[in-house]
Amino acid sequence: MDKIKESGSLTDKSLTKSLTKDGYDLSDALFNKTLLDLEILGLVRTNWLTKDTRRIEVAINQEEEDEVEIQNKKTLEKDYENSFPESNNDV
Length: 91
Hints:
Layout: H1 2-7, E1 9-11, H2 12-21, H3 28-40, E2 44-48, E3 54-58, H4 67-82
Antiparallel strand pairs: 1-3, 2-3
């Protein structure tokens, strides 16, 4: 994770080379699993640049929500609640 933070963004091939240079010899399977775990945790984002090359970058946490996003969430919640038929039966 520190390697990715240092450079901001880099390719998977350059990250593999950098880790190997520092003495970390990872199999492709372990490298991909670790990268996937970091992505699931929301720490990194990966994008395909070419068929065989991925761009890896640190995920930026969005602290503030946009007003439009807040309105959209409220509208979606309201629509969801209104989608249920109202029950007049007291059980």
